[in-house]
Amino acid sequence: MGTTQLESVPEPKYWHLKTVLSEALDSDFAVGEILPNERDLAARFGVARATLRQALEQLELEGRLQRRRGVGTTVAPPRTAVSVSTAQHDWPGAPGDDWQTSDATAAVPPLAVRRLFDGDAADETHIVRRTRLAHGQAVAAELLYVPAGSVSELSAIDMPSGPARGRAVLRALQRLDLEGQDRAVELGSARADDAKELDRLPGAPVLVVTTRYFSEGRTVAVSVATYRADTCRLTFGDSGDVEISHPGQARRAS
After folding, report:
1. The pTM is what?
2. Given a cut of 70, is residue 254 above it in pLDDT?
3. How many CB atoms lie within 10 A of CB 96?
4. Residue 205 phi/psi, 5° resolution?
5. What is the C-alpha separation between 133 and 33, in angstroms, rounded?
6. Residue 123 DSSP label
7. Nearest to 107 by CA among 83, 136, 127
8. pLDDT category of residue 230 using cuts at 50, 70 and 90
């Protein structure tokens, strides 16, 4: 990196610094390389550490940098594609689904989730936790909410604990006639449990993809999937499909 002092510019100083840093990442650093510490960087560019942090946070949000526990801030690999298909005919857990079931419990879902069921969510709801892996790296964590009434044929004998319970709930969903789904995407902050699973810091930017599944004219399941926003890019094709990008794997949206 050069040692040019920042001049007075019409845009916020941190934004100009972000541009300077981005150019340096392209020319002076390799993927995975650790950046100098904040004190050295701030001194090199003649800015306050608060200004530097704003620039680094923006670069992290844009996927240029990654902050890793016990390592520091590293240069992120280029993004490649993992699809989040909007196809209307697949239940979670259907063949080709690349999510792994890690746990399942029965509990009352949060109020925001209950509202998505239009009052149909029973007090007892199966909550299935799943993780999406790519090249051994967790890129998303999901909570799938399935009211007991949606899978009423699921007998007590089918209800073990942990991952086996989750797989039983997914099998029960396959027996329903899926009429369609809708999906919403919004920016959020990683909760402590999701941050740990995704190897991010709590509060790190994430993309929250909420999907409602419909059968028999009502919402029978809701998925809340949390993707790492620092490594994700969304594109929307003519078909309405969504493509989420992350380092290390490329797949076209279906």
Report:
1. 0.69
2. no
3. 7
4. -65, 135
5. 23
6. S
7. 127
8. low
